[in-house]
Structure formats: structure tokens, C-alpha cells
Design brief:
Blueprint lengths: L4 H10 L3 E4 L8 H9 L4 E4 L8 E3 L5 H8 L6 H10 L5 E2 L10 E3 L20 E2 L2 E6 L6 E5 L2 E5 L2 E4 L5 H11 L4 E7 L3 H6 L11 H8 L4 E4 L6 E3 L4 E7 L5 E3 L2 E2 L5 E2 L2 E13 L5 E2 L6 H22 L3 E6 L8 E6 L6 H12 L5 E5 L8 H11 L2 H4 E8 L11 E8 L30
The structure holds flavin mononucleotide.
The site of flavin mononucleotide has 17 residues, from strand 8, helix 5 and helix 8.
Length: 445
């Protein structure tokens, strides 16, 4: 298991998955366009962007890559993540002398010195898209880790989108006392840390402890220079700063994961106080709406959802947040149905796992939930809309879904499982004996 971005990139280079782009590439649109073209096939390293350091993108762009990073088979990723979340492991604090991210320290932050791309046509400007934001609960001191889009608003100023989750909770507490909330941003971290940051965990749960478990050894953290926080010692770059209380400035529009723009509006502001980095740092950007973006969120959510559904339907075998459903809105759940009604209960549980889930399909154990043709076949041949579809109107959804009423969203469940009392043979899948064992290439020229 790689515990730094560098180790991960070295591995991908050896396996010819990481390609180096030596041609000069413009940070405005060109880099994102190339990242999108390579999405799911290659990770790219741009060494000539006119900036002071290389830029990498797409190193977590497929389930196969993320499974490799986790050291498991593709079909095991959600289960493996869920197990790590159930068995968190403490992190370890290391001295600054042993932390590569402290090789360079400055208190004069100038974001213009970082190669921060402009991704989509109507984006308001350059955005940091792959930073882990680390903060602590002002009341309890509990740590939280999440990723947020960050608009470059000045040399040491960032606009931020904070959807109503844990960071939002901390920020509201600080703001109520008119105090800033200290934050740190770690850029250039390995896929495990990016995945861990996306866990569906309860408030107060430190996502870094999931990373330790996934590594199989404690994550190394190091103290910041200007804020009372700890950051991954192996990160490439760390920015330190404060979320300002009761300050709002324009942020957006920004091309988001549902493949629409998140609109411009007044948002919270970060003022940066320090930057530390490795000697020759590597900058990481996630091109929004690519598979790298979508899957980093999907796998931890699948893990969390699996745990929740199993609380009510213990025979749940797997879940898939589909790419067509933006890896957030559509869930396919596979159960080994033992009593009638379980599929509907699985739908309730899936819908409760995250406000983002909009449509849930439940299928039987013979259906390949990662093959959407198979899933559609199950819907086509095992469900009747009047009996098996239900709709709940006006629940909370995701504001980035443009079809919602400012986040108010309808939910739908489809039970595409075979009724347990169906006559024997009626739903038997046709099969040709021997088909699975045959290799066609042995028969044709
Ligand atoms: N969540 C936001 O609230 N605002 C964002 O701008 C945002 N951007 C994201 C960008 C990427 C590339 C990814 C992978 C996720 C992004 N998220 C964003 C989702 C959060 O990071 C994620 O839901 C996280 O688990 C929230 O953590 P929390 O529940 O501990 O607050």
C-alpha cells in the first residue's frame, strides 16, 4: 500500500499507467481537456505548464486503480472501505524534521506561484480541487477531513463551497462567537487519504483514522506552523489559514460533478497564513466531473451505505453508485432476499445513507450490479411500476442537482427482485450448458 503520492506515482509509472506530458500545456482549459480525455485510462503528469512545479491528474480515475491503491480486488472496494471505517486506527505525530512537507516553509503565501488550473468554460477562475481540508470542532476538538472546491480570490484568499455537513457545523459554531475557524489544506496526497476524506461518518469521527487502517499502519501527521492542526507529513503542499467569520464574497460559477455549473453566490472566505511543501513539490488537480472526481466519492459512500443497509437487511451483498447517476444519485443494491418486503426496506436504508441518493434499484443476487445492461434487464423483466415503484416527494436532496427545488428533491425506489412466491421456473435465466467454459478464440481464425 502506497502511503505517499510519490510512491503511488512511481508505481503507476512502472505500470505504464502514468504518462508524462512534456509538451507545453496551458493551465487554462488545455490541461483539464487532456485530463478529461485520459479519464479512466491514464494518469497524466504535466511537466511544462509554465508554472514552477509539475501537475498530476487522474491517478484515481477507475475502480481498478482505486482497488490497486487499497490492495484489494475491484469487487471488494466498498466492503474493504466499510471494514476500515468500522475498525479505525490511530494516527501518529512525527517531528517536523521527519516530515517532507516541512522542507520549505513560508508565511508569505502567494497562490499565483502554484500551477492552479482553470477547468471549465464558465468557471469564475482558477480552482484548487484536490485539497484535503482539515479542521477541528471548536467545542470538542474532534478533527474532520473533507474536500471542497476552492476559488482563488487573491494571493492568499480563497472562496469555498461548504455544503451543510461537518465542516459547516464547525464553522457555524465558530461564527456564532464571531471567531475564525482554523483550517489546513493538504494538496498532493495518495488515493487512500483522498478516499478516507469522503467517508459517510458521524460528526466527530476522524477520517484520518480510516486512512491508517487502510494503510495497515498509523498515518503520519505533523503539526502546522500557524494553526493548531495536524496535517499528513507526506503531503506535497500544505496551506494553512482561517475561515473568516461573517465574511461572504462571490464564488462561482464552477463546473461540478453532475456535469452542470454550480452557480455564483456569496460564500465563505479563507485567508491563508502559511504554506509549507516538499522541496520540489507536485501539484494535484482533480478535473471536475471526471471519474477520478466521481469515484473518490462513490467508493466511501458505497461502503457507508453497505453498512447501513445491512443493519436492516443483513443479506445485502453489494451496492453500486452508478457513473450515469453521477456516482451520487443512483444506487443499485444487490440482496439475497429471504423474506418479502426486504427490497423495500433496503431502499429506505439506502435513501437514508446520504441526502444525495435519489433513485434506488434493488436486484437479486444473480444480477451483476456493475453491468448496467443487466440491471436494466432486471428492471425490465422483474418489476411492475404499479406494484414495485414508490415515490417520496419533497425530501432533502443535493443542491448541485439542477432538477431539485433548491435542494428539495423527490426520491424513488424500484424493487426489481423476483417475488419469493413466484411459480418455479418462471424467472429462471436461460443458459447454454458449457458457455461459460468456452473460449471463442479457440474456434475462430
Ligand atoms: N463538498 C462540499 O461541501 N463542497 C465542495 O466544494 C466539495 N467538493 C468536492 C470535490 C471533490 C473532488 C470531492 C471528491 C468531494 C467534494 N465534496 C465537496 C464532498 C465532500 O468532501 C464530502 O462529502 C465529505 O465527505 C464531507 O465531509 P464531512 O461530512 O466530514 O463534512
Amino acid at each position: 500500500i502506497c502511503t505517499s503520492l510519490r510512491d503511488w506515482l512511481t508505481l503507476l509509472e512502472q505500470e505504464k499507467i502514468l504518462k508524462t506530458v512534456t509538451k507545453q500545456v496551458d493551465l487554462k482549459h488545455e490541461l483539464a481537456a487532456l485530463g478529461k480525455k485520459a479519464d479512466g485510462k491514464y494518469a497524466l503528469k504535466f511537466v511544462n505548464t509554465g508554472g514552477s512545479m509539475p501537475v498530476v491528474t487522474g491517478f484515481g480515475g477507475s475502480r481498478a486503480l482505486l482497488a490497486k491503491a487499497m490492495g484489494v480486488e475491484v469487487h471488494q472496494v466498498a466492503e474493504h472501505f466499510a471494514q476500515a471505517q468500522e475498525n479505525p486506527m490511530k494516527c501518529v505525530l512525527v517531528d517536523k524534521a521527519n516530515a517532507p512537507v516541512k522542507e520549505f516553509v513560508t508565511f508569505d503565501v502567494d497562490l499565483a506561484k502554484l500551477p492552479i488550473p482553470i477547468h471549465h468554460e464558465k468557471d469564475s477562475g482558477a480552482y484548487i480541487t484536490a485539497a484535503l481540508l482539515i479542521a477541528k470542532d471548536p467545542e470538542t476538538g474532534a478533527r474532520n477531513v473533507s474536500i471542497h472546491r476552492l476559488q482563488v480570490s487573491g494571493a492568499n484568499r480563497l472562496g469555498i463551497l461548504i455544503l451543510p455537513r461537518h465542516l459547516h457545523n464547525f464553522y457555524q459554531k465558530a461564527e456564532a462567537e464571531n471567531k475564525p475557524l482554523e483550517i489546513a489544506l493538504a494538496i498532493g496526497v495518495d488515493p487512500i487519504l483522498l478516499l478516507a476524506s469522503q467517508a459517510l461518518a458521524p460528526l466527530g469521527f476522524d477520517e484520518f483514522t480510516i486512512a491508517s487502517r487502510l494503510y495497515g499502519k498509523p498515518l503520519e501527521l505533523v503539526k502546522c506552523e500557524t494553526v493548531d492542526l495536524e496535517v499528513p507529513a507526506q503531503a506535497e503542499i500544505v496551506l494553512e489559514g482561517r475561515l473568516l467569520p461573517n465574511v461572504r464574497e462571490m464564488e462561482g460559477p464552477f463546473g461540478e460533478y453532475p456535469k452542470y455549473y454550480g452557480p455564483a453566490s456569496l460564500k465563505s472566505v479563507i485567508e491563508l497564513t502559511a504554506m509549507t511543501s516538499r522541496k520540489n513539490p507536485i501539484y494535484h488537480t482533480i478535473v471536475p466531473a471526471t471519474m477520478e472526481h466521481c469515484l473518490l466519492g462513490a467508493i466511501p459512500r458505497e461502503g457507508g451505505m453497505l453498512q447501513l443497509i445491512r443493519n436492516t437487511v443483513p443479506t445485502t451483498l453489494g451496492v453500486h453508485l452508478t457513473a450515469g447517476g453521477t456516482c451520487r444519485y443512483h444506487a443499485v443494491v444487490k440482496i439475497d432476499k429471504k423474506s418479502e418486503g426486504e427490497a423495500k426496506n433496503a431502499i429506505f436504508a439506502a435513501l437514508s445513507s446520504s441526502h444525495e441518493i435519489k433513485h434506488v434499484v434493488v436486484v437479486d443476487k444473480d444480477v451483476d450490479i456493475f453491468n448496467m445492461e443487466d440491471v436494466e434487464w432486471a428492471i425490465a423483466t422483474r418489476s411492475q411500476a404499479g406494484r414495485d415503484v414508490f415515490i417520496v416527494e419533497r425530501a432533502a436532496g443535493n443542491k448541485l442537482d439542477p432538477s431539485t427545488d433548491d435542494g428539495v428533491c423527490d426520491k424513488m425506489g424500484i424493487d426489481a427482485t423476483v417475488p419469493l412466491d413466484a411459480p418455479a421456473g418462471r424467472f429462471e435465466r436461460i443458459r447454454i450448458p458449457g458457455e461459460d467454459q468456452l473460449d471463442l478464440t479457440e474456434y475462430i481464425l
